[in-house]
Structures are given as structure tokens and as C-alpha cells.
């Protein structure tokens, strides 16, 4: 069984989000949508209520780097 992603896996979540939504500019998303998309990732396995603004912002910035590198 593979390791499930947690809120602390910022870079891995960012890569997964970019793979799932390659054309989406991460800065265009509201945090509520970002939270939902993270929780919907097949490999995500953490408590949805364990997130906070700081964690979401860190994931958003890591995803932005992935997005900018690809474009």
C-alpha cells in the first residue's frame, strides 16, 4: 500500500494538483475550492479538518511554482 498524503506533504500535493489540473492557475482558486480539490485527490488521506490557511497557502505557492515551470 502506498503512503497517503497529509497536509504536511506540500510539494507532493502541489505536484498532484498540477497533474490533475494542469491548465489551472493556482492563484485563480479560492481556498475553499483548493481545500476541496486537495481532499478529492486519490492519494490524499489526512483529516480534512486539519488544514488551515497557512497550510493551504503553502500548497498554493508550491503549486504555483509547478504551474509556472510548466508554462
Structure commentary:
This protein has one domain: IscX-like (Arc Repressor Mutant, subunit A). The protein is 55% helix and 0% strand. By secondary structure, it is mainly alpha-helical. The longest helix has 18 residues.
Can you tag this structure with a few keywords?
mainly alpha, Arc Repressor Mutant, subunit A, globular
Mean pLDDT: 96
Task: Provide the domain count.
Answer: 1
The CATH topology is given as Arc Repressor Mutant, subunit A
The H/E string reads HHH
- Largest sheet: number of strands, sense, barrel closure: none
Instruction: Specify the CATH homologous superfamily.
Output: IscX-like
Bin the strand percentage: under 5%
By DSSP, the count of extended strands is 0
Helix content class: 40-55%
Q: How many DSSP helices?
A: 3
- What is the class in the CATH system? Mainly Alpha
The CATH architecture: Orthogonal Bundle
The structure class reads mainly alpha
Low-confidence stretches at least 5 residues in length (pLDDT < 50)?
none
Global outline: globular
Summarize this structure briefly.
The chain is an all-alpha fold and 71 residues long.
Write the layout of secondary structure elements.
Elements: H1 10-20, H2 31-40, H3 53-70
